[in-house]
From TrEMBL:
UniProt source species: Avena sativa
Protein's UniProt name: Uncharacterized protein
Length: 432
């Protein structure tokens, strides 16, 4: 007797798959299963979480809405996403994920009336061109959160005067050199770094009436804090580094009149050696990248000669440390990591996947445009301990126009707001 195939097994595989898919009631999956899937996607990328919620209403009903409740919720920040300009499109931007390589083309009507000051933990920091009102925009969820205006007062003309309602005369939006968010108190605080000559930082929460100036907790160390740079949000706190390599954070103690800048690490830099230090977040860690140069590296510097390279006749050295926040110490690393490259600068730092962007060298540090223009190298490669020349700058009519349509990713990431004259003029023209 010939055995008969089970019912349905004589159908082609594609037909059986379609039949099984039709039968499964996807929209009525158990709530705990939907929540588990959503949490996993959110851990991977907030964009995937948004796509999941967009699939059907029952899934939206049992998952958190990024635009409801606390719009500053750290879970919904697009940390691995960067925003690139597009040619001849004032409000159009290209969103790019530096970890996965994904791209999204978005139109932001807000950019018709606002100027972008920078980014804070993946969020766009905007200022109204007419009123100086500040807001932050989540480029993926569309949430817009408002902060106090940055106003100008002709009477406040000395950086030593702490007036929480206004800035000194001569201030303009290009004075903001970086931004970050501190989540240590609720609601979260937006922190803006200012260029040398003004106060170090200003802070505000949503719906505050004024901005508050941060003050250094130990006044005797103020001389070491001429400039705070590369602000990073890590573990819910805001961290900065000084050029000399000290790491600072903010203390928002309840009842304090001013936010206090306190030292997490305060080590004296090498004597007679120039140094530039930057913080960068990488796969759940915070790294500090230090670039040192000067004759002292060779003359009694105590460094391994194999880790010193010559650039244009000057001894140079690149170091990477993991910042142990709990232990308040720096742990030496052999580089920034295989499959990764760090773009470092005063206003922002970015870690990029070299597996997704193979034109960028792995385990390398790329310096910003400002340092390159001052005669430094373009990138340092830890694999063979070599430095390479900067790429030739791209532009039109001798001016800098960052553009996702024609620039390579490397060209875009090395250009920093406020550190190149032509780019600064371009930003000012955008304000008029």
């Amino acid at each position: 007797m010939t055995s008969q195939p089970a019912k349905g097994l004589d159908q082609p595989v594609a037909e059986r798959t379609r039949a099984a898919t039709k039968w499964r009631d996807w929209k009525n999956l158990p709530t705990d299963l939907v929540e588990d899937i959503a949490d996993r996607l959110l851990t991977f990328d907030v964009a995937e979480y948004l796509r999941f919620r967009a699939a059907c209403k029952p899934w939206r009903d049992c998952t958190d809405n990024p635009r409801a409740g606390d719009e500053m919720d750290a879970r919904f920040r697009p940390r691995d996403w960067i925003v690139l300009y597009r040619c001849r499109d004032p409000s159009g931007r290209t969103l790019m994920n530096v970890a996965t390589g994904a791209r999204i083309y978005v139109d932001f009507p807000e950019l018709a009336t606002h100027h972008q000051l920078g980014t804070a933990d993946g969020l766009l920091v905007l200022i109204n061109k007419g009123s100086n009102d500040v807001s932050i925009l989540n480029p993926l969820t569309g949430a817009l959160i408002r902060f106090p205006p940055l106003t100008i007062n002709a009477a406040v003309n000395m950086p030593s005067v702490y007036d929480p309602s206004s800035f000194p005369m001569g201030w303009d939006p290009t004075s903001v050199t970086g931004a970050s968010i501190d989540d240590s108190m609720s609601p979260s605080t937006l922190v803006l770094c200012l260029r040398p000559g003004w106060h170090l930082i200003v802070c505000a929460k949503p719906n505050d009436e004024n901005w508050a100036y941060g003050r250094v907790a130990k006044q005797r160390t103020t001389d070491k804090v001429a400039l705070l740079q590369s602000p990073v949000t890590f573990g819910g706190r805001c961290y900065f580094t000084t050029v000399a390599g000290a790491i600072m954070t903010l203390d928002f103690s309840p009842g304090a009149r001013w936010p206090l800048l306190t030292f997490l690490l305060d080590e004296d830099p090498p004597v007679n050696t120039e140094i530039s230090s930057f913080l960068v977040r990488s796969q759940g860690r915070m790294l500090m990248v230090c670039y040192m140069f000067g004759a002292n590296l060779v003359l009694g510097g105590g460094y391994d000669e194999t880790e010193i390279f010559m650039w244009r006749g000057c001894p140079s050295r690149m170091e990477v440390f993991e910042v142990d926040v709990v232990g308040r110490r720096l742990v030496p690393q052999s580089g920034v990591g295989d499959g990764q490259a760090a773009f470092v600068g005063a206003t922002h730092t970015v870690m990029v996947s070299t597996k997704k962007f193979p034109k960028i060298a792995a385990n390398s540090v790329y310096l910003n445009y400002y340092l390159r223009q001052r005669g430094h190298f373009g990138a340092y490669h830890f694999e063979d301990r070599t430095a390479t020349l900067p790429r030739a700058p791209k532009g039109r009519s001798g001016r800098f126009y960052p553009c996702a349509c024609h620039w390579e990713l490397e060209d875009y990431l090395v250009c920093e707001k406020g550190y190149h004259k032509d780019y600064l003029l371009y930003l000012l023209a955008d304000l008029l």
